[in-house]
Amino acid sequence: MRITNSMLVGNLMRNLNTNLSRLDALNNQMATGRKYAHISDDPVALVYSQAARNKIARLSHYQRSVGSAQDWLNQAEVGIMELQSTLVNAYDAAMDAANDTKTDDDRKNIAKTIAQYRDHFVDTLNTTFGDKYVFGGYNTPGDPAAGFVGDGVKPFVVRSGELFYNGFNMSRFDGMDATDFFSLTTATILPDGSTLTAAELAEFNTLQSDVLSFDVGPGITMPVTMNGTELVFFITTNANGDTVIRNAFNVLEELYQNVETGAPVNDIGASIKPLQDGQNHLLTRTAEIGGRVRRLDLLEARYEQDEINYARMMSDAEDVDAAEVILMQKMAEAVYQAALSAGARIIQPTLMDFLR
């Protein structure tokens, strides 16, 4: 087959364009730091890259959720510890008031202190974090149904010496048998001799289950606070040795009334054991909050490691090896320069050279 000069020049130009395209691709990789500029360059790598990006985006959501949950649990822990501290102070005041050496004036001064503890207990139950109540479930400002007229939107309010939660009288259960309390029906007789209607029972069950929860992982929902009823009610024994449910607010109110009115020392001392049991109950709730915080810490550590793994997966799919690309670029550049040098000698002859 006869090889003409035009054929040599044509092959030279095609090869030069091929070399130039390879050099251009390597230059783009160096400039962008990515292995591919188009989907068609490496579809498999793109699939891995997008999968890693989706995983990282989901992890970012759960990491923010875990961070918010930790903040809520820390606030709940502070509130519960403050409730427990209030009962400790009230216990000390009760011990002081039960002392036979105290005069009536002394007890009236102690009663004033107990009244402050009682009011502070209710204030702490209405602890807020951001625009929500820590122990009030999903109550938010602007919901007039959350409280009585004149009480704003506070979940816990006091009316005539009784504690109400979202308009429901929690003092009605104070002193009732513990077994009956945990198996309430419309036929259960309350300490005041009344019974709950079907609507009231449904409302009370709803209030008990109302607690703020966060999605902290795929299929993992964690309560980040505690319902106020879990903190107010606790189990103790009465003077007859029966296991009963007491309302912490009513215990404080009862103690205040006994000290203020100069009741016998035995009546004042009757509040000491309930106050001790209330303290232990709140300590147990604090330990439960601590367990949730520990679980979130483990989730946070796992998410951080997952983020590192997915980032490495995305980097392997997208990012270039700088040393390898520089080496390949220098080789492609040398080949291209050599091709140009050889091509210069091929296309150098002119028409006059052929006529000679």
Care to describe what's here?
- With 356 residues, the protein is mainly alpha-helical.
- It is 62% helix and 9% strand.
- It has helices at 5-32, 43-97, 104-125, 178-181, 198-209, 228-232, 248-260, 265-269, 272-318, 322-346, 351-355; strands at residues 128-129, 132-133, 156-159, 162-165, 168-169, 213-217, 220-223, 233-237, 243-247.
- The strands form 4 sheets. Strands 3-4-5 form a 3-stranded antiparallel beta sheet. The chain has a two-stranded antiparallel ribbon with strand order 1-2.
- A hairpin with a 5-residue loop joins strand 8 and strand 9.
- Helix 2 (43-97) runs antiparallel to helix 3 and helix 2 (43-97) runs parallel beside helix 7.
- The relative contact order is 0.16.
Could you list some keywords that capture this structure?
356 residues; mainly alpha; two-stranded antiparallel ribbon; 9 strands; rod-shaped
